[in-house]
């Protein structure tokens, strides 16, 4: 390279098409109606960034509740409350931005999904640090969830679709299942049989993790086939 040749930085495509959000979980319509009802009722000083931060606070409460349940099982109720706080912040931040027409697509996409990754780590790590689920089992579930997240982000880049639900379930359904699991831990956590050293909570969380890993493999094959059939530039040709 000659002395006068400038070093090229990464090229950012600012003309990329908006990403289509696909959400087909069972509670999607009811949840959308609730979010649309809440948005105009939030105080004017509430900002989407505040809600994103609140979602992280909710994940931290979940982590503390699960971790502290070693000392007293009543701490699990803090985790239940944390799931509600996490839903409120995580679900409303983008909805509020769209309602007030203050979207920042690039910044919002980056911050929101970064917060999702941190929140997921706190939730699943807390589960693995509780006395009810082995840490290595929780890490399988974390690996499966993060693989599905990677698939969603890759698909958003290559096919322009961000799929937020699979098998009719999305983040809200997952939170409800985890709340149910947490209540079951409170009620029966100390009185469950073991199978090969693992209790039923281990088996449920582990099965969910392996199921997500399998879903990642299947969805990767489906998306790869779709891209191959559409051609390198899809149906619209090169931008």
TrEMBL record:
Pfam families: CDP-OH_P_transf. InterPro entries: CDP-OH_P_trans, CDP-OH_PTrfase_TM_dom. The chain crosses the membrane at residues 51-69, 113-133, 139-160, 172-189, 201-218. It comes from the Bacteria. GO terms for cellular component: membrane. GO terms for molecular function: phosphotransferase activity, for other substituted phosphate groups. Keywords: Membrane, Transferase, Transmembrane, Transmembrane helix. GO terms for biological process: phospholipid biosynthetic process. This is CDP-alcohol phosphatidyltransferase family protein. It comes from Sphingomonas xanthus. The lineage of its organism: Bacteria, Pseudomonadati, Pseudomonadota, Alphaproteobacteria, Sphingomonadales.
């Amino acid at each position: 390279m000659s002395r006068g040749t400038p070093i090229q930085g990464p090229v950012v495509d600012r003309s990329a098409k908006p990403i289509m959000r696909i959400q087909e979980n069972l509670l999607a319509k009811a949840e959308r109606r609730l979010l649309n009802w809440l948005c105009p009722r939030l105080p004017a000083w509430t900002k989407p960034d505040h809600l994103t931060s609140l979602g992280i606070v909710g994940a931290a409460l979940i982590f503390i509740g699960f971790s502290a349940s070693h000392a007293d099982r009543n701490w699990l109720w803090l985790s239940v409350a944390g799931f509600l706080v996490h839903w409120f912040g995580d679900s409303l931040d983008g909805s509020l931005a769209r309602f007030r027409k203050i979207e920042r697509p690039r910044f919002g996409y980056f911050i929101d999904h970064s917060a999702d990754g941190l929140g997921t780590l706190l939730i699943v790590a807390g589960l693995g640090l509780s006395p009810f689920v082995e840490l290595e089992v929780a890490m399988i579930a974390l690996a499966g969830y993060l693989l599905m997240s990677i698939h969603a982000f890759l698909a958003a880049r290559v096919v322009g679709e961000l799929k937020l639900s699979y098998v009719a379930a999305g983040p809200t359904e997952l939170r409800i299942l985890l709340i149910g699991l947490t209540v079951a831990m409170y009620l029966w956590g100390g009185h469950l049989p073991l199978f090969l050293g693992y209790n039923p909570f281990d088996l449920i969380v582990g099965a969910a993790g392996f199921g997500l890993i399998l879903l990642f493999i299947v969805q990767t094959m489906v998306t790869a086939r779709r891209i191959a059939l559409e051609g390198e530039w899809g149906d619209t040709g090169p931008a």
